[in-house]
Every structure is written in structure tokens, then in C-alpha cells.
Amino acid sequence: MLILKISFKSSLKSMKCRTRTLNQLLGSLLLLLFLQSVTVSHVQAQSINAQSLPSQITRLEPSNWWVGFKDPSFQIMVYGKDIAEYNVSIPSVELNLHEVSTTSNSNYLFLDVSTTTEAVPGTVNIEFEHVGDAKESFSVSYPLLEREANSSNREGFNTQDVIYLITPDRFVNGDQSNDSHPEYVDSFNREDPYGRHGGDIEGIIQRLDYIKDMGFTALWLNPVLENAMDESSYHGYATTDYYKTDPRYGSNELYQTLSKEAKKRGIKLIMDQIMNHSGSNHWWMTDPPSPNWVHYQTEATVGDYQVTNHRRTTLTDPYASEYDTKLFTDGWFVPVMPDLNQGHPLLADYLITNSLWWIEYAGLAGIRHDTHPYVSKEFLTEWTCRVMDEYPSFNIVGEEWGVNPLITAKWQRGGVVPKDFESCLPSLMDFPMQVTLVDALTKKENWDAGWIELYELVSLDYLYPDPMNLVVLPDNHDMERFIQQVGGDLDLFKMGLTYVLTTRGIPQIYYGTEIAMESLPPHGHGEFRRDFPGGWPGDEVNAFEGRGLNAVEAEIQDFSRKLLNWRKDADVVHHGKMMHFAPKHDGVYVFFRFNENESIMVVLNKNESAVSLDMEQMQERLQGYSSGIDVVTGEEYSLDASMKAPPRQALILRLE
Ligand code: CA
Question: Any idea which residues carry the catalytic annotation?
Fold first, then answer.
């Protein structure tokens, strides 16, 4: 899910973890609603090209487009006082104007346009002629840019990659001058776990070499678009402007620079996009295009909402009520995140145009889509298919935090699981595996508990059209740090990390997990997202330079670096098949990744003592091999009948 903040804004899931009393929660909620009713604290930030716009227009989005898209259609939204009193024309052979849509709010126009086959990079004029007063007429020069070479064929993140997930506010403060901003209420406060700590895009750019040296090849940042919220805005999931990077993180131009600098180092950029909701301080909330722009809203005021029931099963439940089903999709994620009505065709076009704009503008290699199942199926079909049709090798990973593969699998494109919609979504976050991995590591071995749970979970991969394209993770920004999930047990931690980096799929590692970073009491969302050591001036510990780390942190960082860099070139892990052998509830789990040329054997032993392996059981994968060399330690193991799995260890043996 997202990311939450202080408790009254949290999802039910995180609320359960909190210690605040119900009265405190209600008190906070009432205070919030009061504040929102008496203040308009959001920033009337101008769109990125506001300086060049005529006075009649406040916003024109997007500020440019490109020529040569396979599907050349897109939408231009125009916002300005009584702009609907103008007739629009585009006297150009390069940009066709198909339709001008108005809504009940005269401050909006929506232009349905497409570039023509004759279009070349340059500018076209969009003419606005006032219906009553010709003197009021004006025009806007609109840039049509050239696309990057081979843009449509860009390679998305895939099994060759390991994704590094960063919470930008908490990684590196590379520019102290932007820690607070005069136009935004929520300002620098490093003492508050839910406050802004000053991390930014500049800081990430400064540490790209570290990310590269560790062996990560893709980068997913929690959202960096403007969050002009009154408080707890650091997590970025309450968008208040879909075209503007939050100045406390940097600028659109700097985000573009990050992408380019990352690409130079072989690192792909993945953008976190949110179609489901905006922030309640989004600029359009005080003057929405129409009353049904957001769900459960009958007037242009914040507060008439219903919160989602989070009951994702309603989408396929044959016995579900309409009431519950509608509330799941249309309910607000939290009170400060209005649920967008993607059933409104103008809003759907706005969001799809925006998504494409960022892919092209920032040279993205992928999208991580927040709260995927909370969005209407029809819209998801339209959006995912449009993106994947334009960029066939691109990747989008959806966040469906169900723990049952039957819930997750139906969203993946193609499909085995029956569904009443088409999906072009290539990838999903493998939350079923995340939860099961922790159980497998921490539960006492039994015929139905421990490794067998992971063994059986993976056996359900037949439900997925493409299990290799699932994103696997030990933890992320919305949960307790992995070291704590495994009870602080370093051996189990390393086993878990080994599993994630060698099993099928695309691994994602949360910043800090590469040094076994712990969260702090009281273990809320703000504390899961601790400042990375070395990211702030004066930090005594600097993980980037390996300075001041304790023995455990240094060991895990070294282990991670070796494993990640090995995986970078391990074709057998990127593309190889997988075979595993039924655990015998003795605390050992063995699986192989293999192709025609090579084979690796992963041995995970939770026991305090060495355990003899049943080599007979694994004969079909051991034939032709006599020894295995551990890819991390270089130690050699003989693959004979006396082979034992060493205690409390993970082995990754390259078979010889
Ligand atoms: Ca900063």
C-alpha cells in the first residue's frame, strides 16, 4: 500500500500496529477536517511552463508532446478563468484537434489532439478566440519535440536487474538549500519520524556510484512529485501536481538528469506512479472540473468521502455485495487521499497522457504502480495496454498487496486465472512470496510449516502467466525492516537475502537492507524509513564510504555487494529454469537454477548443526557434476554422498 504517515491517516493495516487510542485518532481526524475547511494551504503552484503562458491561462498540461508515437493521440488540459468562453483551433498540419471538451466548470478545456504523420519537431500555435470579445483572443505556442532515438524499443527492467528502492527524503541530503520551501507548510524537521528530513534527488545523483558499485541496476524512488500537504508529506504518495517534481526534492530537470546519470552507470529508472488517488491539497480539489472528478464527492469540497474497505476479494467474489465492491474501488485510500474517478473519460485521458509524458520526458525504464487493484479495471486495461503497446519491452509492476497468488495472478497480462477484464500489466510485486519467505525462515519446521510453505507457495507459479516477471522482495517502505521480520537473526537474514537474489523473478532491495538496517521504536512507517547513515553532513557513520559501520553492518554490506555483483552477470539466474526438492522438515531447502550450460545449487540450512543432504533425491540435477564452488566465499564442496549442508548458512554453489 502506500505509505503512511501519522496514524490517523494510516491504512487499517498500519492502524492496527499503532498505540494511539481511538480517541486520539478521532481527535486528530476532526482537527484535520477543521484545518482543511478553514485554510487553503496548498500552493497555487504554477505549471512548469507557467512563465511562458498568457495571462488567461494558469495551466496547460502537458507543456509539450513528441512526434512519432505509434498512437499519436493525447490530451491537453487547459485551466484558466472562464477559459471555456474561448473557441479553440489549431491551424496546423502537424497537430490535429479532434474535439474540445468542456465540463460544468467553465475554467477548464480539454483538447483531444493527435500529431499527424507529417509532424516534425517544432512548435504549433493553439489559437483561443473569445466568443464575445475578439480583442481577448490569444494564442499559445506548443512544442512538439523529437523523441529519443529508439524510444519505443527501450528496455524495461527485467530479470537481469536488481531494483534498489529509495525513500528520497531519507537517503542523502545533497542540497541543504531545498530542505524547506517558503511556499510549503511542511518543512524540515529531522527530529520527527514523519517530518521532512531533507533528502533529495541531488543526493541520489551524488551517490549513484555507490548504488552501481553495490551491484544494483535499477532504481525505484518513492514518488517525487509535488506533495503540498500540511504534514507528513515526505513519503510522496499524496500528489498535488502531476507535472511537477516537489522543489524539496529538486525539479523536473534534475529528475531528468538523475535518469541520464543513472543510465550512464547502467542503472534503469523506475517511476512510482499513482493513478488511484491524489492528495487532498491537489490544486484541482478546490476547483474540480466536475463534481464527479473524485469518487464519493458531491460538492467541490473536501470531506464528503468514504474510505475504502480494502476488501480486494470483492472484485472476484461471487457472493460480494455491490456495496462492498464499490467501496473497495471507489473509497478513498485515506482521508487525505481523494479517490480519483478514472471512469470520467477526461480524467482517464489526463492520467494516461501524464504517464506517457513522464516515460518519454524522463527516459523511464519502468513504472511501479501504487495501489493497483484499487483502480477501476476498465481504466487499468486502457492505461496498461496503451503504455505496453507503445513500449513493448517496457515494464510496469503493480502493487497488489494480497498474500494469495490467486488474488495477485489475475492482474498479470495473459493469464490462467479467470477474469472479466483484459490486463496488459507485465509484472506484480510478489507479496505472497514476501510473507511466505518470512514464515519459512522463522517458523519451527514441521510437515506443514517452515520451508515447506515456501516450497508450496512457489508451486502455485502455474497460476501466473509469467512468474519470472514478478518482483520479489525481502521488505519495502511499508513494512518492518527485514532484519526485524526475522527476529534480528543475521543467519536467517542472509538466507532470506540469498533466496530473493537467486529465485525466479526480479529482486527489489529497500535502501538500508544492504547493511541490515533496523527500524527504530516505535516501529511506525516513519521509522521504517530511517535516514541512511552517511547521507547527512556530520553523520558519524557513513555507509557509502564504509566508515563507522558496526561489524554486522559491514559484514552484510560486503555480503550484499558480492552477491549482487555476482548476480549481475549470472545468466543462469536471469534466464535459467528452476527446480526445487521437497524439504523433509529437517530445516533444509535446496533448489537449482539451470540452463543448458550451467547450473547453480542453492542450499539453505536453518539448523544449528550440519545436515546430510539426500543426494539421491537430487540426482536428476547433479548428474555430470562433482563439485560446487560457493559464489560468495569461493569455498569448494564435494557433491558426493557425504555432502552436508553447513549449519545456519546459505550456499550458492556453481556446479563444476
Ligand atoms: Ca535537501
Answer: 370, 399
